[in-house]
Design goal:
The complex is a heterodimer of chains A (262) and B (347). By secondary structure, chain A is mainly α. Chain A has one domain. Chain A has eleven helices and no strands. The longest helix of chain A has 34 residues. Chain A is globular and about 60 Å long. By secondary structure, chain B is of the alpha/beta class. Helix content of chain B is 32%, strand content 34%. A six-stranded mixed β-sheet of chain B has the order 7-8-9-5-10-11, sandwiched between helices. Chain B has a four-stranded antiparallel β-sheet with strand order 13-14-12-15, with helices on one face. In chain B, strands 4-3-6 form a three-stranded antiparallel β-sheet. In chain B, strand 13 and strand 14 form a beta hairpin. Chain B is globular, with a radius of gyration of 26 Å. The two termini of chain B are 28 Å apart. The chains are: A mainly alpha (262), B alpha/beta (347). Chains A and B meet through helix 1 and helix 4 of A and helix 1, helix 2, strand 7 and helix 3 of B.
């Protein structure tokens, strides 16, 4: 409850700040939407030459991409901003000191410290667009499939956060590793295509060791095809496992935090 | 050695159907609230050398060495020393920000770097060179966030905020955006943020750095008042002698990470500069002639006669000087603390 109140205040503060700088907000919204348009253009080009990607039609692939986009944006509203600034600001400049002396979970607190409220504006476009695309696939979506999809998407968003944390943790040792914040963005490229197009080795790695593929593919598969109990359980289990790993790594990294001299 | 009193109260509560339970409570007086034993901190730096591409060259820089410190509740202790001697590093260790390489520490009964939430609720940290408040927002919005972070009851929050705004005269300030404030105003807001949750121990790292004389004075006055009224323990690091002179009865001097002095500030000054300075303004050749006849080690600096006398000689010497010169032209001063400290570090 207390964490919810903290997040609420931080988001409200972010809104108060962002509404005073509409130029930045507008620029970010347009750049995000532009990326969606470019990707859709690329997909159209691909599907002009092939009928399907590993059995997935144009609308299904677009849906996968939009699901990735929604999860990234959702994380962006609350937790990604803080993590992105971890290397260049919090650890390098020593601002993380203030997070360590607060009686709250420092990993969560630093993650939510820089919300990007404007991502909500983009989500207001991408979520309805995803629903429309899902209906255009021509697949009859069952109510149970939709419920299972929502359940799995919830865990997907959390799993994405934990994986983002894991990619940021090395900054506690390698202070100026700014490129870390971009690592997860690179990984998201994998999430936009159906798993069937990848080789077995890639699938094994990205479903288990660094399960970015599971984030979009398993919920989407559940929505379009059938509900598999093992997929549901797997999604929940890997979220908890990677949550535990992220927290442990963060705590170990924190012990190595040297702070910057004042 | 200061007196340590420990009162052990044992009460036995009898409850039906249960074994008697013994509750122990300790009420302590003059128990150290901060205690460290042999704290060491080494910073390890790794460097890449193109001649050894598969090996990182590591260098160790000791920042704190075998630091033993004991601070009692309600004390206002100053950590003194030039830049880079380990003051802030030690402060970061005892506030739980960084882990020491070796050694033990207890602050309010907790190991600081374990970062127990109960401990963190009882401490506060202000850094003169860093902001914890939101840069683009009014200070009041950051205060509201801290209310939730520390889980401060509404009444306590409102009472403390009102008190702080009154003491620091910042009623018109809290609704202004932080980035539009002067450095002094920002520091006032940082101090307010630091006291909202009634901390028992406050760590202040260079709180007056970069501030003008008037603001620095008001900040010092505030620290004094809050230490007296709230009875909280304050650990202050500064290389500004003005802060230390005005606030700290006790100082701990650090050099190269080691403690070189721990005790009364006045005693330190007396120990290293046991003399007093008598200055006489000499405006005529006759006065200069009279001054030259005084039998004591003396010098002339820019039209002033300066005598550095031992404390035990000052009475007799002052009598001589007052006999021969107009009292309006005479001043007796203590040595400048800043000079004394610089002298100690030079030694």
């Amino acid at each position: 409850m207390r964490y919810w109140k903290i997040i609420k205040i931080i988001i409200r503060n972010s809104y108060t700040r962002d509404k005073k700088i509409p130029g930045v907000v507008t620029a970010n919204v347009f750049s995000s939407l532009f990326e969606v348009i470019i990707t859709l253009t690329m997909f159209s080009a691909i599907f002009n030459n092939v009928e399907s990607l590993s059995g997935w039609n144009y609308y299904q692939v677009v849906f996968l991409y939009l699901m990735m986009k929604n999860i990234v944006l959702l994380n962006g509203v609350v937790v990604r901003g803080g993590l992105n600034d971890m290397a260049k600001e919090y650890v390098r400049m020593g601002d993380y000191d203030f997070y360590l002396v607060k009686p709250v979970n420092s990993m969560l607190f630093v993650s939510v410290s820089k919300p990007r409220f404007y991502n909500i504006v983009v989500l207001m476009f991408t979520i309805p667009f995803s629903i429309w695309i899902a209906m255009k696939t021509g697949i009859d979506l069952g109510a149970l499939n939709i419920l299972a999809f929502i359940f799995m998407a919830f865990f997907s968003a959390i799993l994405y956060y934990f994986l983002s944390v894991i990619t940021i943790v090395p900054t506690f040792w390698l202070v100026r590793l700014f490129s870390l914040s971009d690592l997860m963005n690179r990984a998201t490229q994998i999430m936009r295509y159906p798993a069937g197009i990848y080789s077995m080795l890639v699938k094994v790695i990205f479903f288990t060791a660094f399960p970015v593929l599971a984030i979009t593919y398993l919920p989407s598969w559940t929505l379009f095809y059938s509900i598999k109990a093992e997929y549901l359980v797997y999604m929940v289990v890997i979220t908890f496992v990677f949550g535990w790993i992220a927290t442990k790594l963060w705590n170990i990294g924190e012990r190595n935090y040297g702070s910057a001299s004042s | 050695m200061k007196e340590i009193t420990v009162v052990l109260v044992a009460e036995i509560k009898l409850e039906f159907g249960r074994k008697p339970r013994i509750f122990k409570s300790f009420s302590s007086k003059k128990m150290p609230i901060i205690e460290t034993k042999k704290i060491n901190k080494d910073f390890i730096k790794s460097e890449y050398n193109i001649r050894q591409p598969f090996k990182l060259v590591k260098s160790v820089k000791p920042a704190v060495r075998d630091l033993d410190v004991s601070i009692e509740a309600g004390e206002l202790v100053g950590f003194l020393g030039p830049n880079g001697v380990g003051k802030t590093t030690f402060l970061k260790i005892i506030s739980g920000i960084i882990h020491p390489t070796s050694g033990e520490a207890k602050v309010l009964g907790f190991v600081p770097w374990e970062r127990n939430y109960k401990f963190l609720r009882k401490i506060s940290l202000v850094m003169g060179q860093k902001n914890q408040l939101w840069w683009d927002l009014p200070a009041i919005d950051s205060f509201k966030l801290l209310k939730e972070v520390y889980d401060i009851p509404k009444k306590t929050y409102e009472r403390n905020l009102e008190t702080m705004m009154g003491v620091l005269d910042m009623h018109n300030l809290v609704r202004g955006r932080l980035r539009n404030m002067s450095l002094g105003e920002r520091m006032k807001c940082e101090l307010t943020a630091c006291f909202l949750h009634d901390p028992k121990v406050i760590f202040l790292d260079e709180p007056t750095i970069g501030l003008d004389v008037t603001t620095a004075q008001s900040i010092r006055k505030f620290i004094q008042t809050i230490n007296r009224e709230k009875k909280c323990t304050i650990v202050l690091t500064s290389h500004y002698m003005g802060d230390i002179e005005a606030l700290c009865k006790r100082v701990i001097m650090i050099n190269n990470g080691e403690k070189i002095y721990d005790g009364d500030f006045t005693a330190l000054i007396n120990k290293y500069a046991p003399e007093r300075i008598i200055k006489v303004t000499l405006s005529s050749p006759e006065e200069k002639k009279i001054f030259s006849k005084i039998k004591y080690k003396k010098e002339m600096i820019e039209g002033q006669g300066v005598i550095r006398a031992k404390k035990e000689d000052i009475g007799q010497l002052a009598e001589q000087v007052f006999d021969k010169f107009d009292p309006d032209k005479i001043s007796i001063t203590e040595p400048d603390a800043e000079e004394v400290i610089a002298k100690i570090y030079r030694q």
